[in-house]
Amino acid sequence: MSNFSDPASPAAATARSKRATDLMRQGLAARHRAERRFRRYGLIAIVLGLTFVLFLLTSISATGLPAFQQTYVELDIYFDPEEIDPEGTRLPKTLSRANYAALVRSTLRHYFPEVSERRALRELYKMVSSGAGFELRKKVMQNPELIGTTETIWVPTSDDVDMLVKGHIDRHLPESERRVSDQQIAWIDQLMARGKLEKRFNTLFFVNGDSRQPELAGIWGAVMGSVYTLLVTLSLAFPLGVGTAIYLEEFAPKNRWTDLVEVNINNLAAVPSIVFGLLGLAVFINFFGLPRSVPLVGGLVLTLMTLPTIIIASRAALKSVPPSIREAALGMGASKMQMVAHHVLPLAMPGMLTGAIIGMAQALGETAPLLMIGMVAFIVDVPGGPLDPGTVLPVQIYLWADSPERAFVEKTAAAIMVLLGFLIMMNALAVYLRKRFERRW
Amino acid sequence: MNISAMQQARVAAPAAATTIKMHTPEPSFQEREFAGTVGTVTVDNPKIVSRNVNVYYGDKHAIKNVSLDVGANEIVAMIGPSGCGKSTFLRCFNRMNDTIDSCRVTGEIRLDGEDIHNQKLDVVQLRARVGMVFQKPNPFPKSIYENVAYGPRIHGMTKNRAELDELVQLSLEKAGLWEEVKDRMDQPGTGLSGGQQQRLCIARAIAVSPEVILMDEPCSALDPIATAKIEELMDELRANYTICIVTHSMQQAARVSQRTAYFHMGDLVEVGETSDIFTNPRHKLTEDYITGRFG
Amino acid sequence: MVEQHTVKRFDAELNNLRSLVLKMGGLVQEQIEGAIKALDDEDLDAARHIALRDQLVNRYNVQVDEDSVNLLARRQPMGSDLRLIVALEKTVADLERIGDEAAKIAQMVLRIYDSGGTAPNHGLLRDVPAMAELALRLLTGALDAVARMDTDKALEVARRDADLDEAFGAAIRHLSTYIMEDPRNMGHAINAVFILKALERMGDHSKNIAEYVLYYVKGKDIRSIEGKQATDLAVTSA
Prior knowledge:
The complex is a heterotrimer.
Chain A: H1 10-64, E1 69-78, H2 81-84, H3 92-97, H4 100-111, H5 118-126, H6 131-142, E2 150-156, H7 159-165, H8 182-193, E3 197-201, H9 204-207, H10 220-251, H11 256-268, H12 273-287, H13 295-319, H14 323-331, H15 336-364, H16 368-372, H17 393-402, H18 407-437
Antiparallel strand pairs in A: 1-2, 1-3
Helix pairs in contact in A: 1-18, 4-6, 10-13, 10-15, 10-17, 11-13, 12-13, 13-15, 14-15, 15-18, 17-18
Chain B: H1 3-8, E1 46-57, E2 60-71, E3 75-79, H2 86-92, E4 103-111, E5 114-115, H3 123-129, E6 130-133, H4 144-154, H5 161-174, H6 178-181, H7 194-206, E7 212-216, H8 224-237, E8 242-246, H9 250-256, E9 259-264, E10 267-273, H10 274-279, H11 284-290
Parallel strand pairs in B: 3-8, 3-9, 6-7, 7-8
Antiparallel strand pairs in B: 1-2, 1-4, 4-5, 9-10
Helix pairs in contact in B: 4-5, 4-7, 5-7, 7-8
Chain C: H1 8-41, H2 44-75, H3 79-113, H4 128-148, H5 151-181, H6 186-218, H7 227-236
Helix pairs in contact in C: 1-2, 1-3, 1-4, 2-3, 3-6, 4-5, 4-6, 5-6
């Protein structure tokens, strides 16, 4: 009779536990292997993910960073009174109508006196951005004293020159296959040699609105459009979302009707954003007759889109407030409103703010619904308020990505960098707020 | 000579061998089934009178026709196995069950002869008169001062800051916490130790001058020293307040209460003087519970 | 047996305590029988042995005390468990006293037969055997009641104690006639009184034990209620 037949004997018990230990030891190696394998998979996944992100960021930065520099040419402009204001009236109307491009041209002719043929002259003139004239006008309008004096100023070159200087146009290609002629290359080299042509920080990119000329195109219009849009969105979506969340979480009776509302809110969060754009087009523009392309309508549409996000995040924040705090407040004789206002809301606020900021970040990156309400229009002026036509950063990126000029490639990447910068700032703000106001209980 | 030697010494077996079936004590109710509350539910000078109270959670009948009086300045302990309804019954006294949607309470509960379900009695006022201390110490995540001052503030009980300061100090003194916290009134109440937090909650409750204090397992999260302090405090508070305590610890019920009520599956099985309940319970269910035969 | 505690070990400990008390009871019975036999046989060695063995009885007492205190401290018994431990603890105290009385009889045996004086008149001790038997029967009954926690038995013991008291009175009257007959009997008569008194005390202690059984079962101390009322209570709820 084996020991195992006698379960009561201590020897049998020892033998059994020894056998169990042995069996366990056999399985142990396999269990550890499985665990190591799983950890390796996780590590590989993370490394892959990080690699992709890194690749994306590097490629965008590599493309976009040159856009923060722009080739400028130094011009010694003689503000010729004959050209600007032959009658000497100094009237703003006369000053603004004057032909400043002629001043630029005369300076260029002065730089290269040997050029006289019409064709060659046109090529020479094309090297300087058409924005140079506007620049001069601005200066004269600000300070009419300049007339009759000579001033050295730096003006942007045309985008083709810029591209050549940055090396994006290959000067070894046959002349017919590039946008810069041999003659122009020679002039560029001469100017460079004379120190009259160099790359400088591109302030225009940050202060200008959109333009057909890549060297003049800037993102300020889009940034302001985004700011106004988000202001409208935030001021509508946050109070509405938080209010809805509080009502649903704290006050609404739990019945089939509120369940239906809850399911619908959750579903709304998953509705494709372009649908909201269609809704906005139909309701705000066609029905209420609000103007197209304005940040107000954009903000309204984005409000519809971010509301579910904010409601869901706010409800989660409210749910995470421990019920013991509610009981404590009610047990003290606080009314439900007092309980929410004094205790629940302060504790849920960090979570709500985080949710709102994440919703805002989502809205900041949204393109599709804004296309539907006409914010894709080409608008040069920087919007001065939510009722001025404008565009937003992602739409601006979309527009530039669609433009044929070589110089817009780097502008696109630079705009993406700016957009990413804003997104990172908003997320950092969310993290900061959470850390700052988080309370332990 | 030690005991093993004693065992070896030739000791005549007593007439009755130990294998003979022993008569176990026979309470008046032999069956383990419930057949109406045993003991006297009424008291001479009742603070709270409850009659035929029923509580339903949806379809679940959580409290079945319970009648129980709570005498003025007495500590009544409610004991019973988990889920027997003792906490639910306690929460009827300040209508905390109202906050649960699916919960329905029927029957009559009178506080000083006034029906607490009466339309004229605001639940906010009721809860100021019947304070509550919860299982887990739950001070507000605010300063110690604000915790105690909260009740008087929302009920508008003081006219100015000086009065409020005085009331806060008085409440903390009554709760035996003043000496420990007087130098750090502006620090968060959640930074105190568990026992101090619970006493802070008691101070918070008595700051609104309640007549009755309900305690729902107030010491279940505390160590024995903190528990002893709370029990001592309860004994002191009894002079001015009526206290109902729900507890899992029979020893605690035995230590602090004058009367004990035993609940089982929503029934009030037995109620009586604490000394009787714990030495000589009359119902078999009570006996089995307090001697550790189930539950 | 005590059963069905959620903590099985508690059952075992309570049963242990009870069997320890019953063993002690058995030892005490033996002590009484031995003392009476030594008196009967005029056996001095046996009497010395009995007197010495009282220490063993005391040791049981100490052991039961320790065990009960342990149980009280560690299990915090409530309800019937608490009453059982209290009843056993008190039973053991009474058993110890009975043991003392048996030892006292053994010492009387030594005093009577080891003093070198004349042997006592046989008539002086003639009531002892009958009383001893009665006392033993009461003790056996009480221990029986403890073993089964039997209220009927306990009530019987409580009632029969009166018989022993009556027998004691009769024996004293007998003794006084002997003293009047011959004052020289005085010395031995006093010894005889001690023996009779010891037996009478045994009856009282047995009655106490029976009352503890009633206390355990009924939850009421029968001594606090007088006479007929007590009997009624005991009978009606039996």
